[in-house]
Amino acid sequence: MLARIRTAVTTAQRPDDSVRLLAVSKTFPATDIAELYACGQRDFGENYVQELGSKAAELAQLSELRWHFIGPLQSNKTRSVAEIASWVHAVDRLKIAERLSSQRPEHLPPLQVCLQVNVSGEASKSGVAPAEVAALAQAVSTLPRMQLRGLMCIPEATDDSVLLAGQFRQLRTLLEQLNAQGLQLDTLSMGMSADLELAVAEGATMVRIGTALFGRRS
Ligand SMILES: *Cc1c(COP(=O)(O)O)cnc(C)c1O
């Protein structure tokens, strides 16, 4: 997997260390995570609050492990995410951000946050609408105990690489616009097992890879 990312980065003529691998471990057992950790992987992504909690407890001795919560988050489940995760990728409402901010324990570093943007415009997709990203980003950036790092997207489920590339590019353009408005964002969380090359070509800084690392989810 690291070789595949390296090839994508080289092909895109980007610096060697410009893309971070987030290993999406949802539905796979803690033993699989411990195995990858032993190989040097440190960033792991989970989608479900309960699963995050039980795996974090099981793997508490892996002191350098960073949990990323990448699933949709309901407001009544923010507390354990605020207490466990280093990153949250799919914030799309101010209310969720405010809860995470107020529930982030004082003794932990600021929670690292990305806003999920609905780049495909599909009604079924979560994420803030592109036209509303700027207002949400400005509001989130002022909250204590969290640091707004960038944007995340899940593009349309399609094999059409032109369409996909366009949606990734849209996320990058939005990030550039926010930075032109004075924010300092450095993270584009985009690209999964099937489309990481396209995402890297369009500027992804973190790719979220499940299937290609752990195998098919049942
Ligand atoms: C499951 C999931 C992934 C990983 O997808 P794969 O296609 O298995 O690589 C990435 N991002 C999110 C938000 C996910 O839910």
From TrEMBL:
Entry's Gene Ontology molecular function annotations: pyridoxal phosphate binding
Domain Alanine racemase N-terminal, residue spans: 5-216
For the modification N6-(pyridoxal phosphate)lysine, which residues carry it?
A: 26
Q: What does this protein do?
A: Pyridoxal 5'-phosphate (PLP)-binding protein, which is involved in PLP homeostasis.
Domain of life, per UniProt, equals Bacteria
Gene3D superfamilies attached to this UniProt entry: Alanine racemase
List required co-factors: pyridoxal 5'-phosphate
Tell whether Zinc-finger is among the UniProt keywords: no
Protein source organism? Andreprevotia lacus DSM 23236
Question: Which HAMAP family does UniProt cross-reference here?
Answer: PLP_homeostasis (MF_02087)
- Record PANTHER family: PROLINE SYNTHETASE CO-TRANSCRIBED BACTERIAL HOMOLOG PROTEIN, PYRIDOXAL PHOSPHATE HOMEOSTASIS PROTEIN
Please give the family membership noted in the entry. Belongs to the pyridoxal phosphate-binding protein YggS/PROSC family.
Q: What is this protein called?
A: Pyridoxal phosphate homeostasis protein
Pfam families, A to Z: Ala_racemase_N
- Keyword Lyase assigned: no
Keywords, comma-separated and alphabetical: Pyridoxal phosphate
**InterPro entries hit by this protein:** Ala_racemase_N, PLP-binding_barrel, PyrdxlP_homeostasis
